[in-house]
Amino acid sequence: MKIFIENDACISCGLCVSMCPDIFRIGESGKSELKTDKFDNLESEIKNCVDACPVNAIKVQE
Ligand code: SF4
């Protein structure tokens, strides 16, 4: 599984960080970024974040 965050789309709302703090963090740019590339057993959490992002900035490639 690969995860991409579209920086230009992210509005820095912090929702993904609060929902999945093991995966996302707000970076120095103020936008969400990945804090890990290990996603084992986190698929359902990640899907919840994908669905919750208000601007669909989180993309998942299976
Ligand atoms: S939920 Fe979406 S818009 Fe909000 S910080 Fe995360 S990636 Fe950015």
What's the arrangement of secondary structure elements?
Layout: E1 2-5, H1 15-19, E2 24-26, E3 32-34, H2 43-52, E4 58-61
Antiparallel strand pairs: 1-4, 2-3
The structure holds iron/sulfur cluster.
Strand arrangement across the biggest beta sheet: 1-4
N-to-C order of helices and strands? EHEEHE
The count of DSSP E runs of length 2 or more, i.e. the number of strands, is 4
Q: Which kinds of small molecule does this entry bind, naming each only once?
A: iron/sulfur cluster
Mean pLDDT score: 95
The gyration radius over C-alpha positions equals: 10 Å
Largest sheet: 2 strands, antiparallel
Structure notes:
- With 62 residues, the protein is α+β, with helices and mostly antiparallel strands.
- The chain has a single domain (2-61), classed as 2-Layer Sandwich (Alpha-Beta Plaits).
- It is 24% helix and 23% strand.
- A hairpin with a 5-residue loop joins strand 2 and strand 3 (32-34).
- It is globular.
- 16% of the residues are buried.
- The model has no long low-confidence stretch (mean pLDDT 95).
- Bound molecules: iron/sulfur cluster (SF4).
- Iron/sulfur cluster (SF4) binds at residues 5, 10-16, 32, 53-55, 57-58.
List the defining traits of the structure above:
62 residues, alpha+beta, Alpha-Beta Plaits, two-stranded antiparallel ribbon, 4 strands, binds iron/sulfur cluster
Structure at a glance:
24% of the residues lie in helices and 23% in strands. The protein contains two helices and four strands, in the order βαββαβ.
